[in-house]
Design brief:
The protein has a domain of about 150 residues. It is built from 17 helices and 11 strands. The longest helix has 29 residues. By secondary structure, it is α+β, with helices and mostly antiparallel strands. A 4-stranded mixed β-sheet has the order 2-3-7-4. Pfam families: p450.
Length: about 500
């Protein structure tokens, strides 16, 4: 049974980080159990318990970690402990209440683990000496970088200069990658996901670089710069999944995965830098623009951001903006195809603001609450990131246990968002649950579904990602009815979630 969110939200002031005790056994004095007593899989001497993570019928591979993690949640209910040799311990959280307590206990400079290999490379690359970016920096270094870029990135008006161009990108995608490629069954080719990557790359480059880069050109050669960017991101994400898990021997003995990762990082960086520096040169010679029409790069420039900060921010926007948005659109289309009534409801809403398929999208899409709910429900069922993570700087009491500084705490939101302990009918695709006034809205704990993270370390590009996805779905659903006539589409993990099989959608003109 799901309990009302009003009853679950405890006062913020009750969630305090425990002051480090001045005793060798703080848990004894405070009546708390040590973190080593948190339940977890069976320990293997000298190897910890990470290798004991198993689930019936699930292959123990990184791409199945959402299913393995689900099994841990079902088995241990509230939280569990995982240990990896030569690594700080991990504590997984499986309830929204514990997630809330963690997030509210973290200070203004949260430490987020992950992307260890990327951090390793950037620390040794002179390019990143003065700006490592938001992905890999921590503490004061992260705080100072974010302070420089957050105002333009979080301003609701910052999406407006890209409004028209993002529509043109979506229109070109539909014309070239759907209309021209449908077979006799109105089905797109098996490589449709690759085409979505091209759309996402073109869209994020419009935002990060204020220029088109030609990702939607027909028959791009494999050695093209556009595919170097797209394939570079794909390789980085796939190899990151291998490198971040387990013991980091690659720091001392470079593995084949680390070599592939390094090569992909170099190619991605050098290719993107060509476009970024071109955009910066154009800004220097561009006539004055009204504040409302200024792009992100112009806003960074006007706010006095140094070139290193601007370049790295643009680079990270491209890196983080391809697989995330393309996979979200893919899963949204699948969920709509499998739920025709829901698709019809969102179509009627879109039609109310786009009388014709060729009608331009209005600048404000606030009148489309159901479309926004479709995106949010998609991110509940198929989140881009299945979990979040924080590394503790101070001791923290959770659920009667004392967690030590350095512990990696992982709110496993994929489990929480899809568990009937916290969400009514979790297997049903019901966008209505996210609309204020609906009966289920009040029953969802506000810390259950956080697909973009929480607090100051939440995804800084959230607003742009949502806008891109909404524009694409508006264009697609207004023009086509989408269907799926194959085996169910699953989800796998390579750092981020991705569709488990080719996207063989059928599109029928309305």
């Amino acid at each position: 049974m799901v309990v009302s969110r009003k009853l679950l939200v405890a006062p913020t002031q009750t969630f305090q980080v425990l002051v480090r005790a001045q005793t060798t056994a703080p848990h004894v004095r405070q009546g708390l159990k040590p973190w080593t007593e948190i339940p977890g899989p069976t320990n293997i001497p000298f190897l910890g318990n990470f290798l004991s993570v198993r689930a019936p019928g699930v292959e123990p591979r990184a791409w199945n970690f959402h299913r393995l993690g689900w099994h841990l949640g079902d088995r241990f209910q509230d939280m569990c402990r995982l240990e990896i040799p030569l690594r700080s311990p991990y504590v997984f959280l499986f309830t929204p209440e514990l997630c809330e307590k963690l997030y509210r206990s973290i200070g203004p400079r949260p430490i987020r683990p992950g992307f260890s290999a990327l951090d390793h490379i950037r620390r040794r690359d002179p390019t990143f000496t003065n700006a490592k970016g938001l992905l890999t920096s921590q503490g004061e270094e992260w705080y100072q970088f974010r302070k420089k870029v957050q105002r333009p990135m979080l301003n609701p008006m910052s999406v407006l200069p890209y409004h028209r161009e993002l529509q043109l990108v979506a229109d070109e995608f539909i014309a070239k990658k759907i209309h021209r490629q449908l077979d006799e069954n109105s089905e797109v080719p098996d490589l449709f996901l690759d085409d979505l990557y091209k759309w996402a790359c073109e869209s994020v480059c419009v935002i990060a670089l204020n220029q088109r880069v030609g990702c939607l050109e027909v028959d791009l050669p494999p050695e093209s710069e556009q595919l170097k960017i797209i394939n570079g991101v794909s390789t980085i994400l796939k190899t990151t999944a291998d490198l971040d898990n387990g013991i980091h021997f690659w720091k001392y003995f470079p593995s084949s995965s680390f070599k592939a990762f390094t090569e992909a990082c170099d190619i991605f960086k050098e290719t993107c830098f060509k476009y970024i520096h071109k955009s910066l040169e154009e800004i220097k010679h561009k006539p004055h623009t009204a504040d409302a029409d200024k792009t992100l790069l112009e806003q960074f420039h006007d706010r006095g951001c140094d070139e290193a900060t601007t370049v790295v921010m643009a680079l990270d926007m491209i890196f983080g903006g391809i697989d995330t948005t393309s996979h979200t659109v893919a899963f949204a289309l699948y969920n709509l195809a499998m739920n025709p009534k829901t698709q019809e409801t969102v179509f009627q809403e879109i039609k109310s603001v786009l009388p014709e398929a060729s009608s331009p999208i209005p600048q404000s899409i606030d009148k489309l609450p159901y479309l926004k709910a479709v995106v949010k429900e998609t991110l509940r069922v198929n989140p881009a990131a299945i979990a979040n993570a924080r590394t503790l700087s101070d001791p923290l009491e959770l659920n009667g246990y004392l967690l030590e500084p350095g512990t990696n705490v992982v709110p496993f939101h994929y489990y929480i968002m899809n568990c009937d302990r916290f969400v009514e009918e979790p297997k049903a695709f019901k966008p209505e649950r996210w609309i204020k006034g609906h009966a289920e809205f009040e029953n969802i704990h506000p810390f259950a579904a956080l697909p973009f993270g929480h607090g100051v370390r939440m995804c800084i590009g959230k607003r742009f990602a949502e806008y891109e996805v909404q524009v694409m779905l508006m264009k697609l659903i207004r023009k086509y009815r989408v269907e799926w006539h194959h085996e169910p589409l699953g989800m796998k993990i390579h750092t981020l979630s991705f569709p488990s099989k080719p996207l063989r959608f059928r599109f029928f003109p309305r």
